[in-house]
UniProtKB/TrEMBL annotation:
This is Transcription initiation factor IIF subunit beta. Keywords: DNA-binding, Initiation factor, Nucleus, Protein biosynthesis, Transcription, Transcription regulation. Residues 64-114 are annotated as: Disordered. Residues 92-114 have a biased composition (Acidic residues). It comes from Jimgerdemannia flammicorona. One of its GO terms (cellular component) is transcription factor TFIIF complex. InterPro entries: TFIIF_beta, TFIIF_beta_HTH, WH-like_DNA-bd_sf, WH_DNA-bd_sf. Belongs to the TFIIF beta subunit family. SUPFAM superfamilies: Winged helix' DNA-binding domain. GO terms for biological process: transcription initiation at RNA polymerase II promoter.
Amino acid sequence: MPRNELMDILFGAFERYPYWSFKGIVEHTKQPTSYLKDILGEICILNKRGPYTSMYQLKPEYKGRQAENAGSSSAAARGTTHAQASSSAGGLEDDEDMLSDDDEDEDMEMVQVE
């Protein structure tokens, strides 16, 4: 299997589940172990301790790309333009300002109660 196709399959697998055992990746991709180890060494971290010991996860730089690709494809699927997305984001900022004002009121009330 070409390298880029295998990487696409791996990124898709890590979208579904963030942690994979080597055995699971071998079964999922049906590729030779030495070939997989080379590619996994480039794009993944092998956890050596903790709850996910001996499991692979994507390196942070690839997690970001994965989210960007998913975000751009979902925006394209909805048909929203960049201008529409930024105008709706502006509305969210106003809501955040209102929330921060409420937090200030709560702080003041707590001071008055004491």
